[in-house]
Design goal:
The chain is of the alpha+beta class. It has six helices and nine strands, in the order E-E-E-E-H-H-E-H-H-E-E-H-E-E-H. Helix 1 crosses helix 3 and helix 3 runs parallel beside helix 6. It starts with 15 loop residues before the first strand and ends in an 8-residue tail after the last helix.
Length: 245
């Protein structure tokens, strides 16, 4: 196969940065950079819940995802009105499911946390970067909510992160950029908790098939990558890390 960007080995992720020093009014904010892919993740807390949850003593975590017009070439049109394109809807549902998997909604109380993921530059892996950064923004927002920050426990029951893997020219690769993604015979997104439990695995062959051995190899590669991302999340949050060391 062709050499990877920055001469990476197959099991090496792109450069990764979680920057909490970003302006904004939301209590949780982080800028995620994985290679050239850049996503702004913010988390806001509202003291109410969707109507179907009112009075049940539980909260809700939801997500919105958007690729800004300047994030791709050619320019991506803005989503207008309430109708989202299918890809946008599917990705923001994935982000929401991933974050809810590690939140005790009863401990959250009747509050809604909305995590907004706005893609500034897309070069592959925008959904996985959104989940990884969205979790950091979520923790920051909880820390900034006095009733939750002062509570004995935390609504966070585990950590969550995500990465992509794929098979390109017969080789299993970790953390695909766009050029690798479009050439991949198999493309997979994996979401896992810090306790190495799976939240979601999205994988498919692109005019190709894959066998059990290749599947297991991709899963192992994703587990390795997510363990590293989890360490980066912990370093970013420092004393705000919600799990015991």
């Amino acid at each position: 196969m062709e050499s990877r960007s920055n001469q990476r080995d197959p099991n090496v992720p792109r450069s990764f940065v979680l920057d909490r020093d970003v302006p904004g009014a939301a209590p949780g904010r982080v800028l995620v950079r994985t290679g050239d892919t850049t996503v702004l993740c913010t988390a806001s807390v509202d003291a109410d819940v969707p109507p179907w949850l009112a009075g049940k003593g539980k909260g809700w975590v939801t997500a919105e995802y958007n690729m800004l017009p300047g994030s791709t070439t050619p320019r991506k049109r803005r989503d207008r009105g309430v109708k989202l394109d299918g890809r946008t809807s599917e990705i923001q549902r994935l982000i929401g499911r991933s974050l809810r998997a590690v939140v005790d909604l009863a401990a959250l109380g009747e509050r809604t946390i909305t995590v907004d993921c706005d893609v500034l530059l897309a070069d592959g892996g925008t959904r996985t970067a959104s989940i990884t950064g969205g979790f950091v923004a979520l923790v920051e927002a909880l820390r900034a909510t006095p009733e939750l920050a002062d509570a004995a426990g935390t609504p966070i029951v585990d950590t969550v992160a995500a990465t992509s893997v794929g098979i390109v020219d017969g080789v299993a690769l970790l953390d695909l950029d766009y050029q690798e993604d479009v050439r991949a015979d198999v493309d997979m997104n994996v979401v896992m908790t810090g306790q190495e439990r799976f939240v979601e695995v999205q994988g498919s062959g692109e005019e190709a098939t894959f066998d059990q051995q290749q599947l297991f190899a991709l899963i192992a590669l994703a587990q390795q990558g997510i363990a590293q991302i989890s360490r980066w999340q912990q370093e970013t949050l420092g004393s705000g890390w919600p799990m015991p060391s």
